[in-house]
Amino acid sequence: MNLGAVAAIVGMGDAYANADDIKDPLQLAAEATYKAIADAGIRKTDIQSLFTGRSPWADRRPQWNNIFASHIQLPLTLSTELTMHGAGINVMFGLAVQNIAAGMADYVLCLQSDATALFIDTVAVGAATDADPQFEYPFGPIIPALYGQVARRYMHEYDLSEEDFADVAVAQQEWGRRHPHAAKARFGAIDRADVLASPYVATPLRRWMCSTWGGGTAGAFIVTSVENARQADKPLYIRGFGSCATHEYLSERMGIHQMPFAADFGALPNLTHSGVREAARQAYAMAGMTASDMDMVQMSANFSHMALLLLEDLGFAEKGRAIELYRQGRLTPGGDLPCDTNGGWLSFGQPGISCDMDTMVEGARQLRGEALGLQVPGRPKTAILQGAGGMMACNGVTILSTEAA
Amino acid sequence: MSEQGETVVADRFPEPRRTLDAEPFWRGIAQGRLLFQRCGGCRTAVWPPRSYCPYCDAPGLSWEESSGTAEIYSFSTVMRPPTPVWNDKAPYTVGLVRLAEGYYLFTEIDEEWQGIAIGQKVEVTFPPRDVPLPIFKYARNEG
C-alpha cells in the first residue's frame, strides 16, 4: 500500500508571541487552530482526530492534547500526544495519513504551540530534561555540551573547522534577518568574524553557532483525504514520510553496535550518522523520489554542525561534505536549494517544542507562496521537511508537494 | 528524588537519579571502584546498567571492576553552566571516554580545558566531592 498519495494539507494557521505581546501555549494553539479551520473551509466539528507533540515546556501538563481539545470544546474520536521528543511533530503528519488511509477520520488536526522563554528558566530546564539524570546530568552538561560531543567528533572525523561552522551560521542569518518573527533578525547581516568573535557556550560551539530561544509560536494543520482536497485552494500533498528513533540519552548511542534498519549508519558506534538517514530513506521510497527531486529543504538544525550533518543524512551530500553546499552558495537566497528559509532554528530560534512545527509552517508557507519572510522565487513545488527530537535521538521526515503525483 | 525536568534544584550539585539496575555501580563508587556489567552469554561489556543484555538479550549480567584506563572519544568544555551552583567550577569539561574494556562512559575530564584532545589517555579518579562521581584525569604515565 503506497500511502504517498492518500492525504493532503488543506488548511494551516500559525500564531506568534513575544515579550511585548505575551501569549501562553493555549492562546497560541487556539489562534492557530481557528485560522487553520477557516483556511480549510471546514467546521470545527468536522475534525475527528487531534495529534500534538510533547506538552509545551511553558505548560507541562500531561495529556496536553486533551487539555487543548477541551479548551476549545472539541470532542474527538482520537486524540493523543506523539512524543518522539520534538520529532513527533513531524511524524504526526504521517500518522494523520495513516489515520485517514484507515478510514478512521475525514479531517485530522496536527497542532503544536509553545512559548518557553516567556514563562520558564530555559537554561536550567533544558539540560535537566535531555541529559541522563543518572549518568550525564550529575557532571553538569548543558544541551550545547551534549551536542558539542557530536560537533567535536564531526570535526575530528571529517576535518572540519570552527570557520566551517561559522559559515553555516552566516547562511542561516541571511534568511533569518529577513523574517519578521526570527529571534535574531534584529542583529542584521553577520559575517564569519562575527561568529568567531562570539563567546563559547560549550566548546567548540560559540554563541552564534547555537540556536536561541525566541518568543512563542504555534502551527496548526488540517489534513484530509486527497478526494476531499480536490475542493481546496492550495492543497499540499503528503507524498512521503518516515521516522526513526535510535536512543534516548546521547551516551546510550555509544553503546549501539548495530542498527536494524536498511539505511547505512556507518561504522558503529558513532555520533555522526543520525536516524534521519533511515527516516529519509523511508520517505523518499514512499514518494518515489530522491534528494535531487527536492526544490527546498527545511530542517531542525539546533547547532551549526547539525545543519551539515542533517543535509548529509537527508542525502544532499556525502558524509563530511555538506559544507561544500554552503561554500557554493546553494542554500542561501538566490541558491538552487533554499534551506531553512525562516533562518532555521539557529536564527529563527527555538520557541520550545513548537520549533519542529515552525519548520512545517515555513515549508508549507513557501510551497503556498505565502512566506512571511523572503519568498523563494518561482514558488518551490516539492520540499523535504525534517524534524528532530532529543539528543539526536528521534527523527521524522515528511515530503510535501503542490502536486498530487 | 526530584522528578526529571520538573524540579531543578539550583543551590546544590545534582544527585544521580539512581536506578535499581545500577545500585552495584554506586556502591562501587562509594568504595572508589569503577564497576561495569558484562554479559555471561556473549561476553560483551554492557553500559549503562541493565537487567538483560542488549546485544544477545540474555539475562544474568555480571559485574566486573574496570581497569579505569580510557581514551578520550569526544569532549566539550562548559562555559555557561546549567545552574548557579556550577558557576565557580566553570569552565569545566564533560566528555565521552572509551574504557579499556570497550564501553563508553560520560564523565568529567578534570584537566586544563585548552589542552584536552581526542585520543588522549586518561584514568579514573575519585576526588572527594559533595556528590561522589568517577572523574577522569590524564593517565599518570602520559604526564
Descriptive account of the structure:
The complex is a heterodimer of chains A (405) and B (143). Chain A is α/β, with parallel strands linked by helices and 405 residues long. Chain A has 15 helices and eleven strands. In chain A, strand 5 and strand 6 form a beta hairpin. Chain A is globular. Chain B is mostly beta strands and 143 residues long. Chain B folds into two domains: 18-65, no CATH class; 67-143, OB fold (Dihydrolipoamide Acetyltransferase, E2P) (Beta Barrel), CATH 2.40.50. In chain B, a hairpin with a 4-residue loop joins strand 5 and strand 6 (104-109). Chain B starts with 22 loop residues before the first helix and ends in a 5-residue tail after the last strand. Residues 1-7 of chain B have low confidence and may be disordered. The interface between A and B is large, with 45 and 46 residues.
As for the CATH topology of the domain at 3-119 and 215-221 in chain A, it is Peroxisomal Thiolase, Chain A, domain 1
Q: Which architecture of the domain at 3-119 and 215-221 in chain A does the CATH hierarchy give at level 2?
A: 3-Layer(aba) Sandwich
CATH architecture of the largest domain in chain B: Beta Barrel
Please tell me how large the radius of gyration of chain A is. Answer: 19 Å
Category from helices, strands and their pairing of chain B = mainly beta
What is the count of β-strands of chain A? 11
Q: CATH topology of the largest domain in chain B, anyone?
A: OB fold (Dihydrolipoamide Acetyltransferase, E2P)
Silhouette of chain A: globular
Summarize the entry for a quick read.
The complex is a heterodimer of chains A (405) and B (143). Chain A is an alpha/beta fold and 405 residues long. Chain A has helices spanning 25-40, 64-71, 88-101, 116-119, 122-130, 143-158, 162-176, 192-197, 226-229, 250-253, 276-287, 304-313, 323-327, 344-347, 355-367; strands at residues 7-17, 47-52, 78-81, 107-114, 200-202, 205-206, 216-225, 236-245, 296-298, 382-389, 394-401.
